[in-house]
C-alpha cells in the first residue's frame, strides 16, 4: 500500500508522485484510486488500488542505483537479435517489466543500434517511450528538471 507523497513507477507510463487517494464511482461501482502525477509531462493517472499488483506499480529506485543505471547506459555491447520483430518484442517485454535497469538497457541498445544502423519507425517510437520512462524516474531520483536529465543522457551517448 502506498501513501500520498510516495514516488512510484507505473510501467509503460513512467514515474510520478501519488497526490491523493480518492473514492470514485465508475459504472455503479465504488472503488479507491491512487491519483498519480507523472514527473514528465505533468499528466495525472488514476490507478485502481485493486489493480496495483497486476499493473506492477512500485517504489522508485534508490539514489544508490543511479551509478548502476549510468554504468548500464555507458556499456558498448548490445546483444540484440538481428531480426527486427524479435528485437522489438524483447525490448517491449523489458519495458513492460517496469524494471529501471531493463529500461536503461532498452535505451542503451536502441541508441547504439540507431548510431550503427538506424532504427525502424516502430523502434524509434519505442526508444522515445523508453527514454521518457527512464527520464521520469531519474528526475525523481536526482531531484532534477527533465531538461537536465535529458542533457545528461545526451552527454552519455555523445
TrEMBL record:
GO BP, one annotated term? rRNA transcription
Query: Entry's Pfam families?
Result: CarD_C, CarD_TRCF_RID
| Transmembrane annotation, as ranges | none
Residue intervals of the CarD-like/TRCF RNAP-interacting domain: 1-111
Alphabetical list of InterPro entries matching this protein:
CarD-like/TRCF_RID, CarD-like/TRCF_RID_sf, CarD-like_C, CarD-like_regulator, CarD_C
Highest taxon in the source lineage: Bacteria
Q: Which PANTHER family match?
A: RNA POLYMERASE-BINDING TRANSCRIPTION FACTOR CARD (PTHR38447:SF1), TRANSCRIPTION FACTOR YDEB-RELATED (PTHR38447)
Q: Can you name this protein?
A: Transcriptional regulator, CarD family
Native species? Heliorestis convoluta
